[in-house]
Amino acid sequence: MKRLSLFILALFLLFAAAGIAISANPAETFKKANDLYRNGNWEEAAKFYETLTAEKPLSAELYYNLGNAYYKMNNIGKARLNYERARYLDPRDNDTRKNIAFMKGLIEYKVEDKRNWYLRKLNEALSWLTFQELLLLCLFSYLLLLTVLFVKLLFRRPLLGRLSIGLIAFFAAAVLCGLFKYNLSPDKKLAIVTAASTEARYGPSKEDKTVFRLVEGMKLSIVKKSEGWCLVKLLNGESGWVPAGDIEAIVAFERPGFSLDLKV
Amino acid sequence: MVRSFKTAILALFVLSVLGTVASAKDDDVQVATSFDRRSAEVNEQINMVISIKGANTNVMHPRIPALKAFETYYTGRASNFTFINGRSESMTTFSYVFVPKVPGKFTIPPVEVEVNGKLFRSVPIEIEVFGEPSQQQPVSQPQIPQPTQPAAPVSAPYGPAAASPQPQSADSVPVSTEGNDPNIFIRVTADKREVYPNEQILLTYNLYTRYDTRYEGFEEEPSTSGFWVEEFPLGKELEKSVVQVGGRRYISATIRRVAIFPTAAGSYDITPGSVRATVKEDRSTRSMFDDFFEDSFFSGSDFFAQRLEKRLSAPSLHITVKPLPKEGEPLAFSGLVGNFTIKSSLDKRTVKQNEPITMTIVVEGDGNIETLERPGLAELPKFKVRDSGASTQLLPSKNVVRGRKTFEVILIPQEPGDFTIPPVSFNFFNPATRRYIEQKTGQFTIKVEPGPVGPSVAAMYPQREETKKGVKIESRDIYFIKETFTPRSLFETEVFLAKILGALAFLGTVVWLVFFAMRRREQVLDKDIALKRRIMAPRKLRKGLRDIKRCLASGKEDSEKRFFEGVRRTLDQYFSDKFNLSPQGLTRTIVEEHLNHTGMPQDIIDRMHKLYEQCDLVHFTQSKVSKETMTETWNVLTELIQDLERKR
How far apart are CA B45 and CA B430, in angstroms? Predict the structure, then answer.
């Protein structure tokens, strides 16, 4: 009996240790990659970071560090791509925003944003929140509205009427912002040019004439895909077809519970 | 006698004048040649003026050297003669136009002028020409007419603008507008194409037009990324002139002059931007040159005339920025390129310990002085050194950025004694000589007398906010990596929270809708009493009957009394609900009236009366009633209600 108890205890400890080992892997791999980065082994560090992204821990810090590693390897396109992914996951991280601004400064082309000013301002304001946070905000404001309406049913007070009107307006605004972020804003269809340079053409063929040129690190939105080509659009309204292999979608991963299959 | 005297006076006067004229020595004759520009594009006009000063007579037409790369036109001669205090002075000018046909660097040889039998020569002048060679064959002989018959190859007088370029000049007029209108275009010239970092390049924008034109400004600014930019303000009136390009006359106006300074070595293509202008396509026979002196370029006349908008752009300019030579580069190079001087001064030579001395350092010269940092001071271990501020003053100049930058440094001696403030060193690169120049100010000796030693004097001279240096960003790079990463579970918490809130929202909506419906129903019924009574009647009836039956089944002592009270109460409530009457004050007579009114048979009325009588009997007489009687009353009641409901 005593032996059996010991055996069971040993099994338990073995599984526990294995569990600890498995759960500690991503953190250790991350630390190892960071050490490689500090020592200047950027390529090796990038490989470790990529391994972690394949396992999908969905960490903004992971993509940020991967972006840094690619920048050190002089791969501006991949660097910006990973910074944008980090920003998608954590839009309020200051370092990520600054690094993106730095990447933009390295790109020799300037693309004029020709959207209406209110769309630009709204997009800029909403860029500080993820879509999931907006959704939570909508739900929370709706629950608050329901509570006030419920209390208003029981106790008829003019203040409650005014409060409920305000909450309705707030809820409507939150919903509109959520819709904008999800559908109207090209947030989920954005991509980065990862080839050193590419050409956007009038049609999905190398025989078609060139509309404009793109260099690595430039951001564009994907309108549609067709047989190895993507129709892309810039903020200045210009569009053209580029080879699918020359660009990479920013959001090509899934967040738990929200299916956003956007792989190019 | 008088007549002879007058004649003699007149003769003396004439002789003196002639003598004065004749006495002008040949040595006073000066010949000078001037050009309005030293660099030009192919087919761009360069104006030359040869001035002969001091010669009174016998000025022959100048001999212009043969220039294969230029077409040369003679445009006129002017003379000016003054006679003051017995001294005469004359100036004769000959004007020419040179039109380069090929790019390159050329030296205009000396121009020879014969004056009074002596030959005078001007100095040679270098001209640089940019652009593509003209398709036209360069003229082998300069088109200089005979002195007596100047015949400049002037094109037809300005008239209605040509719809298409003349065949012989098709290649010489740069086509730079939408729709290729050769009658209006802009040209952007750079005075240098190869420079060093931080060396000035002067960009000049010239608008050429054969129309009545209004300049509207820049539609697209030039892209000068990688360059510091300083703009030269233009006068109230634009500089205008009549020029010939490709054999046709234009009015040329300088619309912008900008100095740009490249920040780093490399090759750059500067896109000059685009300009808007509106033109009046006037078919009148007046020539533009008639209107020129009415300043039609800024025509506000004919305000209501139809004007066409033109968008003008020029080809981009290629600039090569050579790296500064490594040879001779000072250790702490200031980065300035140009030509500068430096001087310094102290406001005091004798101070007490801990009293401040202000040192003023002034750097002045041609170049981008704005970027200059304070020249370094040598180590002064016994002094506290504070920067008090710097100011820049741009000195007016037409084509060169010139300025003066003044630095103030506070020196606070910490110990008494005699000290030497070493010279301030300053270096820059002179692109003209292609050498690094180092300059030093003088050194100063100061005497520091013992003074009060208290708290740090520097603290008594806090720097004003406006004179403090801003925290300068020394360089740009990415920020460092993150040390930890957010685990997956946090995202799942987000999802979990969203699901909970979603479920609560759904339930809350359902609950609220139910409550809302109930409240609404209550409000409707409160407004319609009859409807409320009708709706509530069945429930009240069931309750009443339930109570009566409970009494019937109960074996308690006062159950009979309660039974018959219940029967009466139930009947009253039932009839009041049915006939929309108040239960208070309801009598059998009123009930009978309503039953008759609704056409109920007499049998029902009789049973109604019987029940009420039974209840009154028990209520008023307190007589004992058997269970059978109660049961019978119950049956009568239920049958009555059923019959009434059936006949409703």
Answer: 31
pLDDT of residue B171: 34
Would you call B486 and A61 a contact, using CB atoms and an 8 Å cutoff?
yes
What count of CB pairs under 8 Å joins A to B?
91
pLDDT digits (tens, 9 = 90+) for B431-489: 989 899 999 999 999 999 987 665 455 555 555 565 555 676 767 788 888 888 776 66
CB contact at 8 A, B241 and B178: no
Name A197's bridge partners. A215
Pick among A66, A141, A143, A253 to test the B interface (most B CBs inside 10 A): A143
Backbone angles phi, psi at A227, to 5 degrees: 50, 60
Pairing relation of β-strands B87-100 and B70-84?
antiparallel
> Are the Cβ atoms of B495 and A257 closer than 8 angstroms?
yes
Q: Does A7 have pLDDT greater than 80?
A: no
Q: Are residues B171 and B314 in the same domain?
A: yes
**Which amino acid, B588?**
R
Class of domain A2-106: mainly alpha
Give pLDDT tens digits for B227-281: 888 888 777 777 788 888 888 888 899 888 888 988 888 888 888 888 888 888 6
Instruction: Return the exposure string of B338-355: e unless at least 16 CB atoms fall within 10 Å of the residue's CB, then b.
Output: bbbebebebeeeebebbb
What is the distance between the alpha carbons of residues B233 and B397, in angstroms, rounded to a whole number? 10
Query: For position B357, which CATH number holds?
Result: 2.60.40
Q: Is B453 exposed, middle or buried (0-12, 13-18, 19+ CB in 10 A)?
A: exposed
The C-alpha of A139 sits at a distance from chain B's nearest C-alpha, in angstroms, of 6
Tell me what the mean pLDDT of segment B416-433 comes to: 91
Helix A131-154, helix B489-527: angle, nearest 10: 30
Angle between helices A60-72 and A42-55 (to 10 degrees): 150
Contacts of A137 in chain B (CB under 8 A): none
Burial group, residue B606, by CB count within 10 angstroms (0-12, 13-18, 19+): exposed
- B193, B314: one domain: yes
Give the tens place of pLDDT for each residue, B27-54: 567 888 888 888 888 888 888 888 888 7
- How would you classify residue A258: left for phi > 0, otherwise alpha for psi between -120 and 50, otherwise beta? beta
First to last CA, chain B: 165
* Homologous superfamily of the A187-249 domain (CATH): SH3 Domains (2.30.30.40)
- Residue in A with minimal Cα distance to B492: A256
Q: Angle A205-A210-A214 (CA atoms, 0-180°, nearest 5)?
A: 105
SS3 content of chain A, % helix, strand, coil (to 5): 60, 15, 25
Q: Are A243 and A227 in contact (CB under 8 A)?
A: no
- Look up the domain containing B213 and give its range: 167-321
A98 with B479: Cβ contact below 8 A:
yes
Give the end of a domain, one of B451, B467, B483. B467
For B88, B320, B375, B500, the CA distances from B342, given in Å and listed in that order, are: 46, 30, 10, 74
How many domains would you assign to chain B?
4
A59 CA to chain B: closest CA distance, Å?
5
CA atoms within a 13 Å half-sphere pointing along the CA-CB vector of B482: 23
User: Coil, helix or strand for B330?
Assistant: coil
Say if B160 falls within a structural domain. Answer: no
